[in-house]
Amino acid sequence: MNLRNFLDQSFSKALVAAGAPEGTSGMVRPSAKANFGDYQSNGVMPVAKKLGMNPRDFAQKVIDQVELDGIADKLEIAGPGFINITLNPQWVAEQLSAFDDRCGAEKQNPQTIAVDYSAPNVAKEMHVGHLRSTIIGDAVVRVLEFLGHKVVRCNHIGDWGTQFGMLIAHLEELMRDNPDVMQSELSDLEEFYRESKQKYDSDEAFALRARGYVVKLQGGDPWCNDMWRKLVDVTMDQNQKTYDRLNVTLSKDNTMGESMYNDMLPGVVEELKAKGLAEESEGAMVVFLDEFKNKDGERMGVIIQKKDGGFLYTTTDIACAKYRHEQLNADRVLYFIDSRQAQHLQQAWTILRKAEVIPEAMSLEHHAFGMMLGKDGRPFKTRSGGVVKLSDLLDESKERAAALIEEKSTELTEEQKQAVIDAVSIGAVKYADLSKNRTTDYIFEWDNMLSFEGNTAPYLQYAYTRVASVFRKAEVDMTSFEGEVAISEAAERTLAIKLMQFSEIVDSVAKEGTPHVLCSYLYELSGNFMTFYEACPINKDGVAEDVRASRLALSKLVANTLKTGLDLLGIKVVDRM
Ligand code: ARG
Q1: Ligand 1: centre distance to CA 170 (Å)
Q2: Is the C-beta atom of 127 inside 6 A of ligand 1?
Q3: Residues near 45 by Cβ (< 8 Å), separated by ≥ 6?
Q4: Is the C or the N end of the chain the one with fewer CB within 10 Å?
Q5: Averaging pLDDT over each range in 217-231, 384-398, 433-447, which range is the top one?
């Protein structure tokens, strides 16, 4: 159950019963401090002010109306009219005892949600910007599916554009020398791209051929199309290796690149023309938007078709959103794209809205993120200033994790060690990204992300092994164990309420697209468990059988929640490390 929503609804009802207008929000939040209770309703003050009543008097009326018998132990008016809510531990214990492997999370009203993420470019190495989109997008996808939504993973790869002329011309030359080049030499895509560009810039005959191929490719020439397809496939084969290594749920079936919308583009331009939005300007088709001003304060023109007939990135995104409405029937579209493309998206959407290409109710959301920076606070690059290849990054993570585990986990078998190294090295890189509020830039630092202390993957993975070891010591099988939760100690109470909050946390990740909220939650949960474990003995002599059973039950709930939560983040757990 989403406890916060439940309390919010209870208070909303009570506010209305006490005289507030229909639909007044209870404004319930978890309390910031323990002495303010577990939750707080802040809905009284704004209403009391409007009704011209003393807020504390009105708060009392609300308390008289609210129906939380047996659920809340104490409702207290604080300060100018806050209501502090202290939950009844007995009720909390009953709720927890009924938890199954969903850890209290409920399915939501199912929606169709298209998630646009990863989106690398063909014949280019996936760079760190795509890493952020891939990791954050995939976590949100997992959360949405967990909550029962129909998710369409859209990998909007950059697989179209005039650059394909030179790429095809270059590939043609390489294949002439070595027919098997696709298998062997194309492992370095950056290099391939650079060479193509170099030839294009320096060799007139090559450039001419390249430009010819662009025209042929656009005209549907089978040979050019075949060469293009080779380039797409070799790129996506390489990316798939990265996805698999990263434990990201994308597969080839999810590739919905820019080229997919090619056939729609002329129609989109026609439609915008017919609706009086697009007009000819200096030979190009342009949509002028009052909503966007250039630096001279003039309204901005968005080109949707160039003078030479070519279409643009924006035209594709307009067509693509239309497709997601007409073909996918999407209720929401979530775009995980770096913040530098904010204006691009806003322009495409403004045009879509003005032209009523998609219904009002369809939600288009840019879940933007900042850049990944190096230790020096500058964009993350190799020492020589090149893009950091993801495969190199993951290799380094593995090496570092191996050194760490070698030193720390001396009692593991070789096989166990390998599992730990895998889980930790991938988990650390992903978690470092996921745990930061995605809107800001973040500094990529090996030492922090691979530390067993602080808000890191290894810390959470370690917390999980601690729970597992409690069960090993108790000689109880965790999976089959069942026990009633009963709460008496303060540390049990704190832990129990935290466990109750998993549901509202995943709901908020689904709504806002912010996995860092789940990370902070899991980190706090682990902290609460450590405190509980210190304060409430389980495997010591003299602990009563029912107390021990309850503590084991709480521990199992912690393990389940950690495992489920980390799984939603695409991070694995191990039983020992
Ligand atoms: N391929 C693009 C890039 O590398 C990202 C595409 C994002 N998705 C979209 N619908 N525009 O910048």
Answers
A1: 25
A2: no
A3: 55, 80, 81, 82
A4: N
A5: 217-231
pTM of the complete model: 0.95
Please say whether the beta carbons of 446 and 404 come within 8 A.
Answer: no
- ipTM, 2 dp: 0.99
d(CA 449, CA 462): 14
Contact 85, 41 (CB under 8 A): yes
The b/e string for 136-158 (b: 16+ C-beta within 10 A; e otherwise) is bbbbbbbbbbbbebebbbbbbbb
Rounded Cα–Cα distance for residues 209 and 295 (Å): 40
Nearest in space to 336 (alpha carbons), one of 191, 478, 504, 132: 132
The model's pLDDT over 39-83, given as tens digits with 9 standing for 90+, comes to 999 999 999 999 999 999 999 999 999 999 999 999 999 999 999
Sequence spans of domains, the chain: 3-87, 163-250, 431-568
Give domain 431-568's CATH number out of 3.30.70.420, 3.90.1150.10, 3.40.640.10, 1.10.730.10. Answer: 1.10.730.10
As a whole number of angstroms, the distance between CA 448 and CA 435 comes to 12
Which one of 235, 337, 338 would you pick to mutate in the ligand 1 pocket, going by the greatest count of ligand atoms within 8 A of its CB? 337
- Separation of CA 192 from chain center: 32
Q: Whose CA is nearest to atom 6 of ligand 1?
A: 119
Tell the residue nearest (CA) to atom 8 of ligand 1.
Answer: 156
Q: How far apart are alpha carbons 431 and 418 in whole angstroms?
A: 19
**Position in ligand 1 atom list of the atom nearest CA 129:** 4
Dump pLDDT digits (tens) for 374-419: 888 888 887 777 778 788 889 999 999 999 998 888 889 999 999 9
Q: Do domains 3-87 and 431-568 have the same CATH topology?
A: no
Ligand 1: residue whose CA is nearest its atom 9: 156
478 confidence band (pLDDT: 50, 70, 90): very high
Whether the pLDDT of residue 5 is over 70: the answer is yes
In this structure, what token pair is assigned to residue 60?
């009392």
Nearest to 144 by CA among 363, 465, 437: 363
Ligand 1 center to residue 337 CA distance, Å? Answer: 7
Look at residues 187, 136, 132, 191 and name the one whose alpha carbon lies nearest to residue 167: 191
pLDDT digits (tens, 9 = 90+) for 258-315: 999 999 999 999 999 999 999 999 999 999 999 999 889 899 999 999 999 999 999 9
116 lines ligand 1 (CB under 6 A): yes
Average pLDDT over residues 442-464: 93
Fold of 3-87: Gyrase A; domain 2 (3.30.1360)
Read off the tokens for 82.
Answer: 């806050």
For ligand 1, whether the C-beta of 159 sits within 6 Å is: no
**Alpha carbon nearest to ligand 1 atom 5, residue:** 119
Percent composition of the chain: helix, strand, coil (DSSP 3-state, to 5): 55, 10, 35
Contact of 316 with 304, CB cutoff 8 Å: no
Helix orientation angle between 390-408 and 222-245, rounded to the nearest 10 degrees = 20
- How far is the C-alpha of 433 from the C-alpha of 431, rounded, in Å? 5
Pocket test for ligand 1, best of 118, 121, 366 (most atoms within 8 A of CB): 121
Distance CA 133, CA 153 (A): 12
CA–CA dist 142, 139 (Å, integer): 5
